[in-house]
Amino acid sequence: MLRSIRTVLREKKGVAALEYSILAGMIVLAIVGALTTADISTNITKIFTDLGTALDTAANGSTGTGTGTGTGTGTGTGTGTGG
């Protein structure tokens, strides 16, 4: 096995074939990587969409009811000097 690899590397045709096989392998890896990345980006988008929805629900769902009274007027007494 090792002898056949050495023979291939000594010949120009063998080196060219080896280079093309490496190039083909790199192209296959790039295609697989691109396809895998598309799935990952879809999942990441879904995660952030779900997170945004949950935050909106939490922010809007936390409103409460309450009662209060107030007149908005006040009275007071005091003495002072102004200049």
From TrEMBL:
Ranges that cross the membrane: 20-38
| UniProt keywords, alphabetically | Membrane, Transmembrane, Transmembrane helix
Q: Where is this chain compositionally biased, Gly residues type? A: 63-83
The answer on whether this UniProt entry bears the keyword Transmembrane helix reads: yes
Chain intervals for the UniProt region annotation (Disordered): 59-83
Name used for this protein in its record: Flp family type IVb pilin
Organism listed in the record: Magnetospirillum aberrantis SpK
